[in-house]
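Q: I'm building a small set of examples for a reading group on sequence design. Run inverse folding on the following structure and report the sequence directly after it, with nothing in between.
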């Protein structure tokens, strides 16, 4: 079935389902990320050294990424076997329940080390859900849309992280503004996690009403569903997998630097209040809501790989401008620097979904895309905040962090070189 046979209402409904679902799941993930950078250290990992406490909190942040490959393996395979829609309902519920339970979790002061163990387990469940979400969300919108506009339609899922980040930072910033520090640390932070119950209910209402994608229906009708999609990807589409993994590394690490670690750096190194750090991330994330689909659409008009390459080179250079620029503790320059960083991220992230999914054949797209997404997360975003904090602790300054970003940019450039040029891809969807 081609996109011509899909009515516009179904197309936009798919776009909305992809956008809303990933936004809600990333709200859950981002709420945890912000809490890790600001308050989870003393609540669940108390210690005399604030930096060491933050590193322990970030280690549970990494668990969410390490769990993603499991979600990619399990749900990616199911997405190519039983369909995109069914799997996306499961992943939404899994992430939402885990986040809600974090809001009810006793802290170290109440139950000791068991609190940290339970926090890690719930973070792991979040990661599994997110790991199975991305590949399906991308396909949900792109397989309803015109293949010639895949960059734009696939970007629906890419808007999810900044939208979720915007909501999470906004809620936590609002709570921080209306509550005293004692109230916020004592119980206020829990409201951000408990709120996920309402958001997940809304996401489910949209997804259960959506039909299966035309592409999967066609695969099912022709009896072409794979019986062992994971084995097929590793056997027949290894180059595509490496390309997908490598191209995701720099954007993941870059995003972790300018939305998560920047909060730690601003508060502990520059002595700027948590509220101003959150404001910088909020403004940059708001701009990304427009820029990500715009860059996705731009990649439909110009070479997707070249656009991605230029943005990656910009991301490699920016830390060497950003850190000296904010060294004086200027709030205005901090906000400006984060915004520019997230513009560069948008230029990588907007075309990314289309670039990764078009590396794989239709019948293996969910599995291949999910594996690329989750495996990249392990070597990219999972360890990034922890390494940023460790590098800052060991060296006392930022140049090692900039060098780390350069290394990730080189990896992404290699991935772009391995990937198929979109202009040469024969689209059948």
């Amino acid at each position: 079935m081609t996109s011509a046979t899909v009515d516009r209402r179904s197309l936009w409904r798919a776009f909305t389902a992809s956008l809303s679902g990933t936004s809600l799941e990333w709200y859950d993930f981002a709420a945890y990320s912000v809490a890790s950078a600001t308050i989870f250290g003393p609540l669940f990992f108390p210690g005399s050294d604030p930096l060491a406490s933050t590193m322990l909190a970030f280690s549970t942040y990494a668990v969410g990424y390490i769990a993603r490959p499991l979600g990619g393996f399990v749900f990616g395979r199911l997405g190519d076997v039983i369909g995109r829609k069914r799997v996306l309902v499961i992943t939404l519920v899994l992430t939402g329940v885990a986040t809600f339970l974090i809001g009810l979790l006793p802290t170290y002061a109440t139950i000791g080390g068991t609190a940290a163990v339970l926090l890690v387990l719930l973070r792991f469940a979040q990661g599994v859900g997110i790991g199975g979400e991305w590949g399906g969300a991308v396909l949900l919108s792109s397989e309803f849309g015109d293949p010639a506009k895949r960059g734009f339609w696939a970007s629906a899922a890419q808007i999810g992280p900044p939208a979720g980040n915007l909501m999470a930072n906004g809620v936590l910033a609002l709570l921080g503004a209306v509550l005293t520090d004692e109230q916020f640390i004592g119980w206020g932070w829990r409201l951000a996690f408990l709120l996920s119950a309402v958001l997940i209910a809304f996401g489910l209402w949209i997804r259960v009403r959506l039909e299966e994608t035309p592409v999967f229906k066609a695969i099912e009708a022709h009896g072409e569903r794979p019986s062992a999609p994971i084995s097929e990807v590793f056997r027949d589409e290894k180059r595509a997998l490496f390309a997908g993994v490598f191209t995701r590394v720099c954007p993941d690490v870059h995003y972790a630097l300018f939305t998560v670690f920047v909060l730690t750096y601003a508060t502990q190194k520059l002595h700027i209040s948590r509220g101003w750090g959150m404001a910088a991330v909020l403004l940059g994330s708001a701009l990304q809501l427009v820029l990500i689909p715009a860059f996705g659409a731009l990649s439909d008009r110009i070479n997707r790989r070249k656009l991605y390459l230029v943005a990656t080179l910009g991301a490699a250079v920016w830390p060497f401008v950003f850190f000296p620029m904010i060294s004086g503790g200027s709030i205005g320059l901090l906000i400006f620097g984060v915004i520019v960083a997230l513009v560069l991220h948008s230029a990588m992230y907007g075309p990314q979904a289309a670039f990764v999914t078009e590396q794989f054949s239709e019948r293996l797209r969910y599995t291949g895309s999910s594996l690329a997404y989750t495996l990249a997360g392990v070597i990219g975003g999972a360890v990034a905040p922890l390494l940023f904090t460790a590098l800052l602790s060991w060296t006392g300054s930022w140049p090692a962090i900039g060098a780390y970003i350069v290394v990730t940019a080189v990896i992404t450039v290699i991935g772009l070189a391995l990937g198929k040029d979109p202009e040469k891809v024969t689209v059948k969807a």
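The chain is about 80% helix and 0% strand.
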